[in-house]
Structure formats: structure tokens, C-alpha cells
Amino acid sequence: MFRLKILLLAVVPLFFAVSSIVFILFFQSDDLIEEQLYRVEENVLTSKANELKAYMDMALKAVDHVYRNANGDDEKAKEQVKALLNQLTYGDEGYFFVYDGNGKGLVHPGQPEIVGLNWWGLQDSQGRMVIKELTERARNGGGFYRYLWEKPESDEIGEKLSYAVLLDKWDWMIGTGIYLDDIYRNIEARKLDIRDRVQKAFMIIFTIAIVALIGVFLSGIVIQLNERKLADTKLKELTQRIVEFQEEERGRVSRELHDGISQILVSVKYSIELAIDRINQGADNAIEPMEKGANGLKQAIAEVRRISRDLRPSVLDDIGLSAALDSMSDEFGERTGIDVSFKGHPFTKKLGPEIKTTLFRIAQEALTNIERHSGASRVTIELVKRVDGVRMIVSDDGVGFDVLRMDGRKNGFQGIGLRNMQERLEFHGGELTVWSSPDKGTVVEARLPNSVLIVD
């Protein structure tokens, strides 16, 4: 009866807490959806605005050599600039339009019938003075304007975001724009996706509540079993560490994709577009941006291969642990300039896939720590078979660190990297030992028992 009372005291508050959370989320889900959609729309429009600015910069650079050398009434230069802008396009429907200071159409590849007519008083269906407003923004240093405009390839009217600047020598407004229909369709799809996620979240909360109630019930039954209680605590900590490691790895891969490959590909895109523009203009200096783009693609391919290798080296599955460690050592040495030597052993063929992965990840973590903190000039990785089991030793001649200060409350090491190594080894019945001093560098030794070897 006493245990039942304790169980009820634990379960009832938990039940009401979970019910309250579900109730609040249910009534706040619409507000959360609208807030998320607002952020999505804001981010997408900002991204599109930046794209329009980039395309405008490209157009200005394309005509700069003509415009800069022309005087105010150089008709030949004006015709050359018009011809260049008529030929300059991007994407599926991207083009540039030009109006003079009085609203006369000068360039409009999407709707050539506009050229030669005055559109200063043109209004869209909502009464917005399109050409007048764009010209005023251009005269004020350049700016954006949203309005309704007919699509060139159909009779449909769509909302358009344009960016305009001024060629002040000729009082020309040059602009470019993008239709926002696809963006709004994307936002609507995102709205449905968010609502689906909210529904799934309710189901997850319900499942978590059931699991939690079962966990509390089981915990109440074994409340007097200290050993089981300690085991549960350790399991929870290990689970949390796994989640933290997964999130850390996902964050690292996300940053590398965004900061590395994404920026390289954007640079390649602009280089190719610049080369195309020069080829269209008949210039003889198109090879330079093409070479720059090729070099960028080469860098992107190398980045993809490196990220793929870090996530799961194929050589570990295809050739084995020794080859994987040797390859990683060579790549680390080439990238950091640190002299790395690897000493393998044929016994690694008797190790199971899990053990190979564990030893590879430990070596990878050790090299990461060396690169970030050690200041070493030489590293040695050695795999050996001893009487008491398998050992992998990673040593360097760096500045070392105070091992005692890294002493943790439970696992023996405060540092996340060292703790990851230790937990991997403990899972297979092994252990980790670290020696370090300022004059002798650092030695990391991973030990595994003979039971990890596969018996023929």
C-alpha cells in the first residue's frame, strides 16, 4: 500500500503536467504556425532581394566599360548599353528593363512592345504608380518596390518584387525583378507541413507520456534496488551523451555544407555567368572566370569527399582498419602540415566491424584534439597486439595539458572528446588511459580485451 501511494504521488502530477502541456500546445499551435510562416516569408524575401542585388551588380559591371567612357549625350554608347542589357538574362524568366527619366521604355526583353512608349502614369490594379515609384527609388540611391505586373509568357497578373538603380549620367532607371507566386506557394506548402508536424508532436507527447508513466511505474517497483537505480541513471546519461554527440555532428556537417560547399558553388555560379556574359559580348577574356569556376568545382568536390569520409570512410569497409587509419593519417598530414606516421598490424583483420569503427573514431577524435590544442609537429599512431588484448596508441610532441584538471565527476574526463573515447571503449569492455606533460607531449592509449577478436 505504501508503494502504491508513492506511485500515485508520482504518476498523478506527471499526468496532469503532460495534459496541461498538450492542452496549451493545442490552443497555441495556430499562433506558432503563423509566427513560423512569418519568419519563413521574411527569410525567403530577404534571400530573393539579395539575389536581385547580386544580379543588378552583374548587369552594372557588364555595361560599365561602355557607360564609364561615354559622355552625357553619347547616342552610340546608349545603344551599346541597350543591346547589352537586352541580351543579359538569368534563370528562366530573369531580365533587365530600362526607362528614361520621363518614363519612356528603352529596354524590356520580356515585353518588347513596351519600348518606345511613355509609361510614367502606369498604374497596377491597386493604383500603384509602377514606373514612377521605381524611378524615385532609383534616384534615391536604389531600392525595392512590390507591384502587380503581367507575366511575359502568359496573361496572368502576378505580384512582382523589383530592384532599381539609376544611371545618373543619362537619368536612366535600370531595374530587374522576380515574381513572388512561387514563394507564396512554398509558404502555403510549409503551412501544411507545420500543421502536420504539430499533429505529430501531439502524438509524440502522448507517446512520451505513456512511456514516462510506464517508467515511473517500473521505477516505483524497484525503488529499493539501488544497483538497478544506478544502472538506470548511467543509461540515461549515456543516452543523453549520444544525443549530444549526434547533434554536435549534425551541426558540424551543417556548418561545413553552408560555410564551405554552398559558398563555393555560389562563387562558381557567378563565375560561369560572368564568362557567359563575356562570351556573348565577344570578349576574349572569358577563360579567366571559367578557370576560376573550374577551380571552385574542384574545391567543392574535395569538400564533399572530405565530409563523406569523415562521416563514414568507405575504405574502412572496403579495405580495413589499417588502410583507413593510414589514409586518414595522410590526409591529416597534408591538411595540417603535421608529420603523421602510422604503424599497422595484420591482426586488424580479426576485428569485427563495430570494433574497427570504434578504434577509427577514437583515432579521429585524437587527431582533432591534436589539431585544435596541441601545437604538435609530429604524431604517431600505432596498433599493437599484446598478451592482454588490443591496443591503439596515439602520441604527439605537443604542449600537453593538465590531466588532473580534466578530472570529471564520473567518467574520469571532463573533455567531451576524451569522454566520447572512453564511453566507446567501455561499451566493448575496454578502457582509455591518457598521459600528458609540457615537455613530452601527450599519449592516448585505447585498450580492448582479447574477446573483441574474431576466432577463426
Task: Set down the secondary structure blueprint.
Elements: H1 2-67, H2 75-87, E1 96-100, E2 105-107, H3 130-139, E3 143-150, E4 157-167, E5 172-179, H4 181-221, H5 226-280, H6 287-311, H7 314-318, H8 321-336, E6 339-343, H9 353-374, E7 378-386, E8 389-396, H10 416-427, E9 431-437, E10 441-448
Parallel strand pairs: 6-7
Antiparallel strand pairs: 1-2, 1-5, 3-4, 4-5, 7-8, 8-10, 9-10
Question: What do you see in this structure?
Answer:
With 456 residues, this protein is of the alpha+beta class. The protein has three domains: 1-224, 2-Layer Sandwich (Beta-Lactamase); 225-311; 313-452, Histidine kinase-like ATPase, C-terminal domain (Heat Shock Protein 90, 2-Layer Sandwich), CATH 3.30.565.10. It is built from ten helices and ten strands. It has helices spanning 2-67, 75-87, 130-139, 181-221, 226-280, 287-311, 314-318, 321-336, 353-374, 416-427, and strands at 96-100, 105-107, 143-150, 157-167, 172-179, 339-343, 378-386, 389-396, 431-437, 441-448. Strands 2-1-5-4-3 form a five-stranded antiparallel beta sheet. Strands 6-7-8-10-9 form a five-stranded mixed beta sheet, with helices on one face. The radius of gyration is 32 Å and the shape is flat. Mean pLDDT is 80; it is low at 408-414.
